[in-house]
UniProtKB/TrEMBL annotation:
This enzyme's EC code(s): 1.3.1.9
Amino-acid biosynthesis as UniProt keyword: no
GO molecular function: enoyl-[acyl-carrier-protein] reductase (NADH) activity
Catalytic EC class: oxidoreductase
Catalytic activity, as annotated: a 2,3-saturated acyl-[ACP] + NAD(+) = a (2E)-enoyl-[ACP] + NADH + H(+)
Active site: Y148 (proton acceptor), Y158 (proton acceptor)
One GO process term, biological-process aspect: fatty acid biosynthetic process
Gene3D superfamilies registered for this protein in UniProt: Enoyl acyl carrier protein reductase, NAD(P)-binding Rossmann-like Domain
Pathway(s) where this gene product acts: Lipid metabolism; fatty acid biosynthesis
Protein's recorded name: Enoyl-[acyl-carrier-protein] reductase [NADH]
Length: 258
């Protein structure tokens, strides 16, 4: 039996909530190629479901709770990780959140507390994770986060999350510069609209999905398996010179002028 291209590597995955999660498609792709996975779940409410998914992987993964809004939980999580995996090679950050009021209101109407929560969970959590893992990536590796086209161009109904994703993409570039000398690559994957549970929380998402499918050059929606396959490439040696980039996976939608 041939070894997978990620055999012997350890991956941390944040953001798996259910089998329709973008994070889950990437977790499956990495595990299928031999990576050992450790999944961080937000709390006990999600733990059972995430553990069931982790058990179904080719290499059953470990699950530890970690609320990314709490520094103490981050410390505890990485202490648990160090106990079972002294070295980390891959990290996926597939985490974003904004209070419902902020998502439904115009940007100029966003409340200060809602702004703070949105950027704390959607952006700062990636920086916090990077601060912890950089000391454990002794062999170099990859930090990967998920963005969306609304970070670059105005997407109606995306509101504050567009500004948060823009900050996230800027963070990718600065982290790539900082961590490059350690052999750590940092990239963002930007899929087109995918019918996930999280996406359905965006007002007008169904129309957004329909417009994308009718307008994108390939005239089709993005498939979860394609997201996993692209993340696998970025984790491979073939992507060894790619860092600080936002990789569009949107059936060509981002090349359009309108």
């Amino acid at each position: 039996m041939n070894q997978g291209i990620l055999e012997g590597k350890t991956a941390l995955v944040f953001g798996v909530a259910n089998k329709r999660s973008l994070a889950w498609s990437i977790a499956q792709a990495w595990s299928a190629e031999g990576a050992s996975l450790i999944l961080g779940c937000q709390g006990e409410r999600l733990r059972k479901n995430v553990e069931e998914l982790a058990e179904s992987l080719p290499k059953p993964g470990k699950v530890f709770c970690c609320d990314l809004a709490e520094d103490a939980q981050l410390e505890s999580f990485f202490s648990e990780v160090a106990r079972v995996a002294p070295t980390i090679d891959l990290v996926l950050h597939s985490v974003a959140f904004s209070p419902k009021d902020a998502l439904e209101h115009e940007l100029s109407e966003v409340k200060r507390d809602d702004f703070r929560v949105t950027f704390d969970i959607s952006v700062y959590s990636f920086l916090a994770i990077a601060g912890h893992v950089k000391r454990r990536m002794s062999r170099g590796g990859l930090l990967l986060t998920l963005s969306y086209y609304g970070a670059e161009k105005v997407t109606p109904q995306y509101h504050i999350m567009g500004t948060a994703k823009a900050a996230l993409e800027a963070s990718v570039r600065y982290l790539a510069y900082e961590l490059g000398p350690q052999g750590i690559r940092v990239n963002a994957l930007s899929p087109g609209p995918v019918n996930t549970l999280a996406a359905r929380g965006i007002s007008g998402f169904t129309q957004m999905l329909k417009h994308h499918q009718e307008t994108a050059p390939l005239r089709k929606p993005v498939d979860l398996a394609e997201v996993g396959a692209t993340a696998l490439f970025l984790a491979s040696e073939g992507a060894g010179a790619i860092t600080g980039q936002t990789i569009y996976l949107d059936c060509g939608y981002s090349i359009l002028g309108a």
